[in-house]
Write a structure and sequence with these properties.
297 residues, alpha+beta, Heat Shock Protein 90, 2 domains, two-stranded antiparallel ribbon, 6 helices, binds adenosine-5'-triphosphate, binds magnesium ion
Length: 297
Amino acid sequence: MHELLVAQSHIQQLTTQLLKEQTEAQMIQTEKMVSLGKMVASVAHEIKNPAACISCNFEFLDSYYENLMAVLVAYEAEVTEESTKIKQLKEEEDFDFILEDLPKIIKSIGTASDRLTETLGSLHNFSHLDEAKPTLSDINECIDSTLIILHNRIKYSIEVIKNYGDLPLINCYSGQLSQVFMNIISNAIEALGDKMAEQKKASRAWQPQIKITTEILETADTEFVAIRIADNGPGIPLEIQEQIFDMFFTTKPVGKGTGLGLAISNQIVTKKHGGQLLLSSHPDTGTEFQIILPIFG
Ligand SMILES: Nc1ncnc2c1ncn2[C@@H]1O[C@H](COP(=O)(O)OP(=O)(O)OP(=O)(O)O)[C@@H](O)[C@H]1O
Ligand SMILES: [Mg+2]
């Protein structure tokens, strides 16, 4: 009996210690996210003015270039005989090449400037990680912002299929939900990367995919928004499916994963939004996470 009591007290001690460690880890993570949010906000703010300057002046640059070209074409049509000096100068400056290359350069600056403006807009979402009150937000837009931030990691090899429903604005912590989308999509990218390496080794052609679906679900008395993020990666083995939402559970090597992504996401969805984070995964088809959020008011 005595031994049993000692063992019980030992278990209790261990549980308390574990809970303490979990709470601490969570606090550290939350603090990290908040300071990261602040840093993102200040960097975004610093870049905003020069980016606006580039984007605004680019429009002038583009139209002035067209005007100059029109003058040049008209001029060349009238002046049929060029002086030796002009001919020589054109040759020295590689005039024909400039004429061919300049429109391409201008076009790529325009695309880059659009991307810069778009990315800055998306960063705005992530700078609200410490938001105190929920705000009305467009979930489809939140997902798009996350995809823009992840653009570099998604690259061209992964096909992203978007199947967005017509959603009402949802009262939510949009910065934190963006963090959830980021965690789940990042996991999908990593899983697809692993499968890609395997398929390459076996010289098999294979198209990695991430499918994102949003829709409204209705029950007799409540409406929900469902967000499904599915990948056709390797799937999650049945024996670890119960553990993936645990703090610090990871199958990734040290330095690559901390095992906090899904634990934090689960808390944001369930505790902060009264929703559910559901998993369905099979090695043949891949993994799907479903986020279900109640629509209030
Ligand atoms: N889409 C997925 N496909 C396959 N396995 C997954 C997928 N998503 C999660 N997992 C598994 O769940 C584990 C836990 O995921 P979680 O995001 O919590 O941690 P992590 O990705 O390992 O580390 P962190 O997100 O903290 O960097 C992963 O290590 C991986 O084994
Ligand atoms: Mg993760």
